[in-house]
Records
---
Amino acid sequence: MRILLAEDQAMVRGALTALLTLEGDYQVTEAADGTAALALLKQQPFDLLLSDIEMPGQTGIDLAQYVKQQKLATKVVIITTFGRAGYVKRAMDIGASGFLLKDAPVEELVSAITQVMAGKRVIDSELLLNSLGEQDPLSDKERQALRLAADGQSTSEIASALFIAEGTARNYLSEAINKLNAANRIDAARIARQKGWL
């Protein structure tokens, strides 16, 4: 089975590759971040994408979205240290088949991979319970604008990046601030990130 492992922490990536290679007939290709993983997905087929959620470049959610949009046969399992409810809901909404915490035992990971390849969905029970809580109030455009604001971009830079008018960018940001009861755009981004909505 061909697995693409997208993980930006070198030690974690190396350990996961070693464990998977020992546990089964897995051919693991490593990607040091989301951008490298996206390039590899465009070049060759993989049976499974095993991806961290927060990485430089593309996030695990972005990669899952790409797999869905391109109608690739690749199954997606997200692994994370962050048990944030918003992440689980967003990942599942765009077709991820599994969502696990990184501190799960390797047997659990291998079992999840087997189940996912058999067409089942696997979600860590603790994450599943958390995900039944609050609903994400942000629209996709508000989320994109907030993410850029969190990176320190000005309203005009956000407008340019999203190909929208400056006034529209300002509206998206103020809507997000209002929905999250935040003091300003940076506070809104912080709240959204904590909840896994960014």
---
Amino acid sequence: MMFIRAYLRASTQEQNAERARESLVQFAANHGQRIAAFYVENVSGATLHRPELMKLIADSGEGDIVLVEQIDRLARLKQSDWDSFKQKLAAKRLAIVSPELPTSWLALEKKDDTGFTDSILRAVNAMMLDMLAAVARKDYEDRRRRQFQGIHKAKAEGKYQGRQPDLKRRQHIASLLRSGHSYSEIQEMLSCSRHLIASVAKEQRQADAVA
């Protein structure tokens, strides 16, 4: 039996890692499949230290499918970590499927009895995944380099103030909390993380205690 496990990741706590959930549910349905479990976390894609991703692999049986919105949800790793990650997938013959990688969609179809299609699929996908992983890593490193250059320039000009909180969004969250909306309702309305909502709620409690 084929089990599909979806992995959702965002880089920071302020981003909504759940954003792609519905689109992945629809993608699976379009291929006559259902997602058995979701694994969600807010962590940088440049590290392999991801508890939910490791839990997904541990929970998986041989031949299960790992469904991601985009390959860069998995693959902004340096080469040694990417090789290690592929070994973990290969140990359980897990297949990565993404809407952005059409060659991966065949993993959602019934396999032939000879295993020939499965072998070809894995060979093509391995090549495509390596290529997309290299592109994702380069994109990550290029953006990091431009960011550091911008910060260095701003510091030299005395203009650097560091990352500022999104005060407008935090005020909106605070207003919704005071009007009795739940975390889930706020998350759906504003596409923000539960961590951010909890942070605003904590600030409210502290302010109320002082008042």
---
Amino acid sequence: MTDPVQLTIEDGVAVVRLDDGKANAVSHALIDQVHAALDAAQADATAVAFIGREGKFSAGFDLSVMTQGADATRGLVKAGGELLMRVYTHPQPTVAAVTGHALAAGALLCLASDTRIGSADLPAKIGLNETAIGMGLPWYGIRLGEARLSVRHRQRSVLQAEIYDMAGALDAGYLDELVAAEAVVDTAIERARQLGQLPGHAYGFTKRRLRQALADEVLLGLDADMETMVPPGS
């Protein structure tokens, strides 16, 4: 089995390719390797680009773990929340190339990233489907939805599990820009390169002021939230 994350530094951009050969499930291995990639980005790059595999950005948390019971579910969902809050507050620009389906934790990674590039040419599904699968949305998911989604779509997205195509996801707030399907990856890397030219100290300082209070609130209450969360099918 190959690593689900590959990192390269390309013209100052830490290009983080997510590819487990399947649905890009958010597993403990993927979480650990994205943390390592963010460490490397701070040392060797000025921006980060998350790149999905063809047809899949991420289908959400690893079902092989989520079906092992409440404790395993809570452990993975907690680790995922910690990673998402790190991405949300990462001091460098973060750009996501949404190359296909982005559901549940995959959609949350879109919300946590600064800039999100997709394509109306791709037959992708994007959204928070937790309610539809019988899972209570973690507090960090609700707070990311409040912070990044359009007010017009917030109830439909966070509470009612509405799933969007790429054009709908742009309107809802999961995406920022639509390009041709073949240009999604290159555009995301170029946007990251451009944003990386902004003064890094100012970008990180302002991002902390914009987002750190939300992250601190989420992380402070994360253990308590996991104790009360509703696992899938409960």
